[in-house]
Amino acid sequence: MLRTSLSVALLALSATCGFAQQQALSPHSMYEPQAGKIAASLAASTSKSPADLLTTGEKTAWKQTAPYAETVDIMRRMERRSPYMKVIQFGTTPEGRPMYAMVVSSDRAFTPAAAAKTDKAVILIQSGIHSGEIEGKDTALMLVRDMVITKLPHQADWLKKAIFVVIPVFNIDGHESRSPFNRPNQNGPEVAGTRANSELLNLNRDYVKAATPEMRAWLKLYHAWMPDFMFDNHVTDGADYQYDVTWDMAHHGDIGEPSRTWVNGRFIPELNQRMEATGHLVSPYGALRKLPDGKREFFVEVFSPRYSHLYTAALNRPCLLVETHSLKNAKTRAWSNYDIMTHSIDIVTEDPQALRSAVRASDAKYAAMAGDRNAAPVYLGGKVSEASHPLVYHSLKTALFESEITATKVTQYTAEKDDIQTVTHDDIDTTAEAQEPLGFLIPIAWKEIADELALHGVQMERTTKSLEQEFETWRFTDVKYAPAAFEGGVMVDYILHPVRERILVPAGSYWVPMHQQRARLIMALLHPAAPDALIRWGFAGSIFQTMGRIGAAQYLTVPIANKVAQEQPQLMDEFKKKLSSDPAFAANPQARVDWWISRSNYQPSGVNRYPVLQVWEKNW
């Protein structure tokens, strides 16, 4: 899903001829779990199903997947047969296709307001955001069928404690762009959809910026229901190994406390134990890396709120990112996906109020921290820690074969287990954090930021009079744009300098109080130190334009630069460090002058100044 495959296209070697002869086959893992061949849970679900509710995956031994029309048809058939299920349209794709979800409730609580009255946990299941990674579509339909049609005792009991919102396919346009060539590094199905949507955007990078119609519809659905728990079902690429499923979930500073305690103390250990008891081999999402000394160590990945499971974590709500593996056969992937959802739902529904209490307490805690200068800072971003602890990583051994194509030796995975005694780096060090102000002010000219916050369910008020006073904000220096476009835009990086300046804020501007449920999400969106802050995604990007009133001639600019250096001698050390660390800068006379000009007052007041103001005391 998230990283380019670490292995070349796999070639099976003839057992009788060793490595001397190679035979081209479809990409496949050299290791399949024994229990996956039986896939008892899948078989039990399929065996109880009416024939007209079986998915194409089930009917073809998971070799094929059907167009979206089959999904809609099965949803409608189940809706007609059960009073406990309702199909809702929550959006429309860029190509005009309706986006459907199922709401499953034994109370017939088919609206957020009705669900809230039941005090049951709300669980969101989402599949097909990358629509070539598609077994989650079928397994989600199977779970709903188990609950309301075949009423398998175990699954039907879930409805006593939970309400489900199920999106079988999120990226519908991509799903319908079907081809046998869309996932060449995946072991089936024979024909599948694409990773990107019809606008060639990756929906699983769009949770913050919400540039697509699909994501804007999803945000409206999510913030109406505010699920207590979520699944996001994927298939990952990468090196071959013994594991049949990997997962990721925010469980460090990236999710609020006490939700974090529920995840670490209850969910993660229970999930791993139950999966292994049913024949699965599971691992946190990450990869082995070869270090300069030749050792291989395991590192988790660090995500930010542009991704599903970190977006919900910014709202103090756990989301399980499920990553089955592209090289395992599709039946193994479906079995792994079905079971990891089943065990997770079991954990939630065995004591749903433990999760709901943790989530509500987290919301209250961070809302109460607003404006408290003695409160702890809130996590904004991090990196993988250098700290580690022992790990046995279940990999596969490799061999080399001579490739006629490359004229070199190429790595080939074998079926021989390679249980590596190594270490895992699975902690996160905080690299960006900040205390919560009482609120933020967004001048009316930057309505685009306020409109984006509204998509995220943020509560705002409008100011009734003009305000002219000193406010806290930031100035940006060393502004750098990414060398290439990313997800329809060009991201920006910078160095932040806190400032206090006299600023006029017109009437009708937007006051964003932090005493609200979405306090941590607001920090992730508005604080410029956050890795997915809206300013980094191009919102209010015109503030970085060089529109200074000073001419470019150095006979005008150099005297001003000299004056700034005299008035602010503390900047000289910073300037010298820049010279020594950046040879290109040191060799560029204009850049050296511009560095000083950017720190002067001789330019439009709004250039390189963050337009969003943080407020610690509301005096209007």
Oligomer: single chain
Distance between the termini: 49 Å
CATH class of the largest domain: Alpha Beta
- Please identify which CATH superfamily of the largest domain we are dealing with: Zn peptidases
* CATH topology description of the largest domain: Aminopeptidase
Q: Could you give a quick summary of the protein structure above?
A:
The chain is of the alpha+beta class and 620 residues long. 31% of the residues lie in helices and 25% in strands. It has 19 helices and 22 strands.
3D structure, described in words:
The structure is a single chain. This protein has 19 helices and 22 strands. The two termini are 49 Å apart. Helix content is 31%, strand content 25%. It folds into three domains: 11-374, Aminopeptidase; 389-430, no CATH class; 435-615, no CATH class. Helix 10 (259-277) links the parallel strand 8 and strand 9. The strands form six sheets. Strands 3-4-6-5-7-12-8-9 form an eight-stranded mixed beta sheet, sandwiched between helices. A four-stranded mixed beta sheet has the order 10-11-15-14, with no helix packed on it. A four-stranded antiparallel beta sheet has the order 18-21-17-22. The longest helix has 21 residues, at 330-350. With 620 residues, it is α+β, with helices and mostly antiparallel strands. It is globular, with a radius of gyration of 27 Å.
Could you give the topology of this structure?
Elements: E1 11-13, E2 22-24, H1 34-38, H2 40-48, H3 56-59, H4 68-81, E3 85-92, E4 98-104, H5 112-118, E5 121-127, H6 135-148, H7 153-158, E6 162-167, H8 172-176, H9 213-225, E7 229-236, E8 245-248, H10 259-277, E9 282-284, E10 286-290, E11 296-300, H11 308-313, E12 319-325, H12 330-350, H13 352-368, E13 378-384, E14 389-403, E15 408-425, E16 428-434, E17 439-442, H14 447-455, E18 461-462, E19 467-481, E20 492-505, E21 510-513, H15 519-526, H16 554-567, H17 571-581, H18 583-586, H19 589-597, E22 613-615
Parallel strand pairs: 5-6, 5-7, 7-12, 8-9, 11-15
Antiparallel strand pairs: 1-2, 3-4, 4-6, 8-12, 10-11, 13-16, 14-15, 17-21, 17-22, 18-21, 19-20
Helix pairs in contact: 4-6, 6-12, 10-12, 10-13, 16-19
